Please model this.
Amino acid sequence: EDKVVQSPLSLVVHEGDTVTLNCSYEVTNFRSLLWYKQEKKAPTFLFMLTSSGIEKKSGRLSSILDKKELFSILNITATQTGDSAVYLCAVEKETSGSRLTFGEGTQLTVNP
Amino acid sequence: DVKVTQSSRYLVKRTGEKVFLECVQDMDHENMFWYRQDPGLGLRLIYFSYDVKMKEKGDIPEGYSVSREKKERFSLILESASTNQTSMYLCASSLTRVRPQHFGDGTRLSIL
Model:
C-alpha cells in the first residue's frame, strides 16, 4: 500500500526562525513529489520535484528530494506570520491521470 | 491563472438525499479529481477522470459516483448521503501528467 508520512504533524515557531518539514514515502512507480500550502481554502502549489539532489527555490522556501532514501524536505527561512498554514506533501505515480497520494500535512504556526 | 470553481462553499443536506457537487475549470485541463479532506486523514482521492466520459476509482469510491460529460466540468454525486460523508470536498484539475494539480476552494458538506 502506498504511504506518505509527514513530520512533524504540528510545529509552533517564532517569526524569524527557520523550519524544516519532512516527507517520507513508500510508493510504487514514483514519478514526482509535490508540496502544497493550505491556508483557509484551496491548497496552493509550491514545488514539484522529480530528480534527486536538485534544490528548488522560491523566495524563502526551498525543497529537495532524495530518491534513494525516499524523502523530501521543505525549508522555510526567516519565517513570517503569513507562513502559518498546513503544508501538504503528495506523491505522484506513473499511472494514467496523474493521481496523487497525500500525507497528513504539517500544521505550521508562526507567532509574532 | 488557473481557476477551479466549486459551486458551493457550504452545503447542508439530510441523510438519504442525493447530493451533487459541481466543479468547473477554465483552462482546458484533461485531468480532474475529487478528494475529501478529514482531520487526521489528510486528502483522500475519491474519483478522477483523465478525459471526457472517462472515470477511474480512487482510494475511497464507495458511496460516490462521478460524471464528466464536458471537459471543463466534473461532478461528484453522493447517491444516498450518510452522516459519515460529512467532510470537506476538494476538486482539482491538471493539464497533463507532468503538471501540478490546481485546487478549488472546497465545499464543506454537512449531512444531518
In short: Chain A has a mean pLDDT of 93. The first strand of chain A starts at residue 3 and ends at 7.
